[in-house]
Amino acid sequence: MTVSTRCAILLTAILTAGCLNPFAPGIDRSPAQSSCDPSTVEGVFQCFQAAYTFRDTTVYGQLLDPNFIFVYRDYEIGIDVTWGRDEEMRATYGLFQNAQKLDLIWNNIVSTSTDSTRVNVVRGFNLTITFNPSSIERVDGYANLTFTRLTTADPWKILRWRDESNF
Question: What angle do CA 25, 30, 33 make, to 5 degrees?
């Protein structure tokens, strides 16, 4: 092997050792930063969307008040069905585990009433649940949400969610 060939191989090895393969990027070891902030009601909506997008029950659970109640209308039997925080977390965990992808879009706010420690918001949403490429569900409707906090310094929590969707 000639000196020029050795130099070319050595130079190539040095140059490629520092290059990153775009098809195998390195691991990002910096701590995750969330752009959602539950100190505002809009921030809770952003956290809610992030929890669904990343299927993260830890983020989702932090949004729910300990006295949380979920309500939906069962049209087949003509009654409202309710459950508490524990059942909501189990149901959401099941959804997050069984879905390959969740796309939640918050739409316009239809109505709102507010004071310093309680807010009620009715807001449209579109949710696309991809279980697999041949099983995709779309849910459209309104979320009637009541937010609460003990003091104005506390983060907002979802106290009550009445699902007014087509599902």
Answer: 115
Q: Consecutive sets of 10 residues in the chain, 167 residues long: mean pLDDT of each?
A: 43 42 48 72 97 97 98 94 98 97 97 95 97 96 97 97 89
In a domain, 17, yes or no: no
Split into its structural domains, the chain has a count of: 1
Where does residue 54 fall: left (phi above 0), alpha (psi -120 to 50 degrees), or beta otherwise? Answer: alpha
| 117 SS3 class | coil
Q: Within a 10 A sphere around the Cβ of 36, how many other Cβ atoms?
A: 18
What is each CA distance from 88 to 42, 91, 132, 147, 154, in whole angstroms? 21, 5, 23, 16, 23
CATH number of the domain to which 109 belongs: 3.10.450.50
